[in-house]
Specification:
The chain is of the alpha/beta class. It has helices spanning 24-41, 50-59, 75-79, 86-91, 104-117, 123-128, 131-140, 142-149, 157-163, 180-185, 208-212, 215-227, 242-247, 250-269, 279-292, 297-305, 309-319, 339-342, 349-354, 382-399, 409-425, 438-446; strands at residues 201-205, 231-235, 273-276, 306-308, 333-336, 362-365, 403-406. It has four domains: 20-117; 123-163, no CATH class; 180-319, Glutathione S-transferase Yfyf (Class Pi), Chain A, domain 2, CATH 1.20.1050; 333-446, 3-Layer(aba) Sandwich (Rossmann fold), CATH 3.40.50.
Length: 448
């Protein structure tokens, strides 16, 4: 048996429709098998709080081994996992095809799926995960909703904390009065027929965040693509289901995968490529959905046709080249590589994208921001989320760059808040930095 594997990680399909997947004894046996391997290795001690919690459980047990740790004490280990996938993709030497066959994030998902099936998942997180409903409601009353979510609002935020469990200090995304899909339907862009890539056509899968919270990301992507000869359509059947996946509601994720894949199937058949604008969503389309529905041909076809936005532009540049005309970016950029971009195993495509800008002053940080989707805004997790993200915030602050960027909009906001907390602790009051997506900076460099 090899000590560790040098081969590329391979993920097995989730056996979520079998009875054994939810069997309590089988799950406990697998938890103990994996936890014992992790305890003996400890390579992931600094990735997230799941591993310190696990190691503390073992070290404080009577035998200082897993055999005297009670199964009920495993819950905090699972709760701390944000499904970032970094342990699987970047640290663990025992992932498949190694004989140990260790997939820690999907084991945490299995535990949550069992909890969800048994009705133990709290109601409020389930309601927060309904991003399409919440986005439509928030957008319909955006002035009021945006007033209510401001951290400075001493009237509404304490109520949100007490009733919903969202920490009053956590920055929350604003709502757009008009969705990205609606804006795109009313804006016809002229496609550059002289561009090297003229003739390509791409469907922009809007994602719930871009559609309801930050249409500017999608608008920048459309302008860059049109300028480079790519015809685009904005299509948004529904959310990818990442919020439901985090809660273990795999049935709902499968329903969403089928619906979106079937909706996009005619476009793929007609030669359209699919671009997701947020890495968590491209990860779902390209990797998680095929592991949940490995026999669904529409899902498989969608995975093969899907791109991350930065990945797509880099591929286009390598294949045919981009239109010239990129100008300088003043003040430099501190770029965070999002965990779910790293989990796609495509390299630092956002950094490659920004390095196409002449004389770019770029500082890159490849470490978890600590946000973890909705996990980091909750009262029970916010302090830990800030602590986990502090190295990234400190790197961005110390870089002295004028612009802060991440492909994950939630991570970007969290990093900026972390920078401001560092300023506050140092007794400084520096100007607020408005976080941006790399495609927005790229569009600005084009003057678009």
């Amino acid at each position: 048996m090899r000590e560790g594997s040098l081969e590329a990680p391979v993920r097995h399909p989730l056996d979520w429709q079998s009875a054994e997947f939810y069997d309590e004894a089988a799950l406990d046996a697998e938890l103990r098998r994996v936890f014992d391997i992790c305890h003996g290795c400890r390579r992931c001690f600094n990735l997230c709080d799941s591993f310190p919690r696990l190691f503390d459980l073992v070290d404080n047990a009577p035998s200082e081994e897993l055999d005297t740790v009670e199964s009920k004490d495993f819950a905090p280990v699972v709760e701390a996992c944000t499904l970032c996938d970094l342990c699987f993709m970047t640290k663990c030497p025992y992932v498949p095809p190694h004989e140990f066959n260790l997939d820690f994030p999907h084991l945490m998902l299995r535990y949550r799926a069992k909890e969800f099936k048994d009705g133990k998942t709290k109601t409020i997180p389930q309601q927060l995960a309904k991003t399409d409903r919440n986005g439509k409601l928030g957008g319909a009353v955006s002035p009021i909703a945006n007033w209510a979510v401001k951290t400075e609002n001493r009237l509404t935020r304490p109520v949100l904390e007490k009733v919903v469990g969202i920490d009053a200090r956590a920055v929350l995304p604003k709502f757009a009065g008009k969705s990205f899909a609606t804006r795109a339907a009313g804006e016809v862009l002229t496609v550059n027929r002289d561009a090297p890539s003229f003739g390509r056509k791409a469907v922009l899968y809007a994602t719930c965040f871009v559609n309801y919270h930050n249409p500017g990301i999608g608008e920048a992507a459309r302008r860059v693509l049109a300028f480079n000869g790519v015809e685009t359509l904005v299509v948004y059947p529904e959310c990818c289901g990442m919020p439901q996946l985090e809660q273990g509601n795999i049935d709902k994720v499968a329903d969403k995968a089928r619906a979106v894949a079937n909706h996009l199937a005619p476009y793929i058949k007609d030669g359209w490529e699919i671009i997701a604008l947020v890495p968590s969503c491209s990860l779902m389309l390209k990797f998680e959905w095929p592991l949940i529905l490995p026999d669904d041909q529409a899902v498989i076809n969608l995975a093969r046709a899907s791109w991350d936005i930065s990945e797509y532009i880099i591929e286009m540049n390598k294949k045919t080249g981009l239109v010239k005309g990129l100008g300088p970016v003043e003040g430099g950029v501190s770029l965070h590589i999002a965990c779910h971009a790293r989990a796609q195993n495509i390299g630092q495509k956002a950094a490659e994208l920004l390095r196409l800008i002449p004389n770019i002053d770029l500082a890159v940080t490849e470490r978890c921001s600590g946000h973890g989707g909705s996990w980091g805004v909750m009262k029970d997790n916010f302090e830990l989320a800030v602590k986990m993200g502090r190295p990234v915030a400190r790197a961005a602050r110390d870089s002295g760059k004028a612009q802060i960027a991440s492909e994950c909009p939630l991570a970007a906001e969290h990093i900026v808040q972390g920078m401001e907390l560092l300023d506050e602790a140092a007794g400084e009051s520096l100007p607020h930095r408005e976080p941006r997506h790399p495609i927005e900076i790229f569009a600005s460099a084009y003057g678009l």
